[in-house]
Amino acid sequence: MSSPAHAIYSSTLSLSLQGHEFQPQYGVQLIFNETARSRLLCSAACSQNPSCRIFDYDSSSHRCRLFEADLTNGAIIATASQTSIVGSMILSASLYASIYNQSCSACQENRYQTCSSTTNTCQCPGNSYWNGSMCPLQLFANATCSQIDACRSDLNLSCIINYYGEFTQCLLAITTTALVQQSCTVGSPTMLLNLYNPGAFPYTYYTYSYTPTTEQATIMVEIQDDPNAINIDDVSVVDTSSQQLLTNGGFETGSLAPWQHGTTSVGAVTAGCGYSGAYCYWDSIVGQTDNIHQTFSTVPGSIVNVSFYLWSRGAGSVIIARVCIYPN
């Protein structure tokens, strides 16, 4: 339930000098491009549209443009028309703090928050997020982000977590689906590691180069240890620009996602066994192999570096550790 259409919203604007227009960073930020009889009517149109945070108006052509943008993802630039002007909404935490998460009656005639039909409370409008004090606009691709909902989810962007469990930047989300193959010995993957009965050994570092042939690939870690366990940690796939391509490779979120189990699920993310942090992936499957896998984006022909730490916790009758990559 959103604010009623007849509500009269109140907004405070900052106006640029004449001879300027707004230049958005992305085309999707333009939400209205029509004519208006006056600058006052154009600014009123922006004020009545909760998505609008910037407008520009040309009194000669009567062009009125509304943008779901601010000066973090666009710019006020000089233009040839000396009758063009830019108006920006002035936002502050005081507009949000007393209303956020309150019952819907608190935001019934408020342009800055909207009533959620799910929670029946005042929440940030679409394409914005709560940062603890106000509702900034969600971020676009490659922007630095600091929380899970900070990126434009409508554009399939996610705030990526690195293998230290830290939020990094907004990137296209990849849906990792369960592989048909349940072993590195099935199909035609690139085999990076293939250990059979190596005995017990402490955390050991392995590193390999891999040249992708497709735009996505899936890394699989396959394990069996009768009757003990194998730990893996700090799994990393880094491209030539040092960009980490995996999410949660160090398992420091305390959960497996976005890694997926194979059809057999015995191993788990466990505390107290990490090589560099608190967590590792611990697998003690007996009698057959188990696997986890994750899909990542690649550039065909561009070499990536794959690395990880492996610990075989005890000698057994059958110890298998394989790491391979399937092209998608």
From TrEMBL:
This is Apple domain-containing protein. InterPro entries: Pan_app. SUPFAM superfamilies: Hairpin loop containing domain-like. Residues 17-90 form the Apple domain. The lineage of its organism: Eukaryota, Metazoa, Spiralia, Gnathifera, Rotifera. It comes from Rotaria magnacalcarata.
